[in-house]
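User: Structure please.
Assistant: Input sequence and predicted structure:
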Amino acid sequence: MPAPAAKPRIGFGLVGPRRDRHAMTMDQLAALTLPVGDDGMVIGVDAEGRPAVLGINRPTPYDVTLIGGLWTAQVLALRAAATGARVTVETGRAPAWTALAQAAGGGQQCISLHDVGRVPPQGASAGSPVVVVRDCGMRPPRGRVVSGPWQSVLTLLPYLSPVAPRLMEKSGLVGVQRVSPDEARQIGRIMHLPQGETEALSTLADGVTLWCTPRDRQFVMTQATDAETGLLGSARRMD
């Protein structure tokens, strides 16, 4: 007499073959490490050619100030969108952002443009993080939309303006591209930079940024992909 067919378990299908359990000791578990770097977007490479990664989507408020060029800010916006963030650009020069906003997202509106002071609440969440890019000139007004959980704010300043010290002091991260020697000395005092790094700020190549916090500093070269170059052109400090 043939053996009766196995009865399927509701919701789980047929009983599969039995295998030995995969088990290990706590000492063996400690040996399971993966070569994974920081989570975030790649903003360039460091002096040794290793990827420099910025975790822009955070559960806590995060402010970034970039004293630099539009090109770098736009590359960062594209890469933030590539991480799944919604990018909101507050700008007084919408034509400079229009082509980027139309090209990003493959038909999905992941980068939106708003006039200065007209950014609506974004409703950021863990499942829908937001990056607000403020491109509002030398004296950006206080924003209606500020950083919060899962909503980071990047403020672009073309030069060291009177509002820059306040923004730099409240920011979790400051990026500085090529500036004049006088601006470099002021930034060096605000960020407590060593003399060598302060002097280097007036000689940086296009696409190079000194990213710094009160404790750490790192020079990063942002290298555009072919798609980014086709959309934004070559790296440049001035616009």
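Residues 8-22, 29-37 have pLDDT under 50 and may be disordered.
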